[in-house]
Amino acid sequence: MVINAFEHLRVKTAAAEDKTLDLIAEALAATAFGLMVAIPAVIAFNYFTRRLRAMISGADETAHTVLTLIHAPAPGEPKPKESASDGK
């Protein structure tokens, strides 16, 4: 749109100048509409991304807690001895 507007400026007539201004106004209106759509979309995306990360972090923490409880020795049961292997 803007390129077409400047193409009209090459012609030195009043009608060409009016057409140029109309095309520039149209381009600015399209830009404003695009920003009105894009800014809330980015805000919503960031909000839900943070919420999802928090939920995943909470789920991960819960999973570690459950696994610790499952693999922990029962009360009164001796702790299993760890082997002293050096990985060779």
Helix content: over 70%
Let me know the number of strands.
0
Sum up the overall morphology in one term.
rod-shaped
Instruction: Indicate the mean pLDDT.
Output: 84
Based on secondary structure, the structural category is mainly alpha
Q: Give the H and E element order.
A: HH
Separation, N- and C-terminal Cα atoms: 70 Å
**Residue runs with pLDDT of under 50 for 5 or more positions:** none
What is the radius of gyration computed over CA atoms, rounded to a whole number of angstroms?
33 Å
Q: How much β-strand is present in the residues?
A: under 5%
Instruction: Give a short account of the largest sheet.
Output: none
Give the number of helices: 2
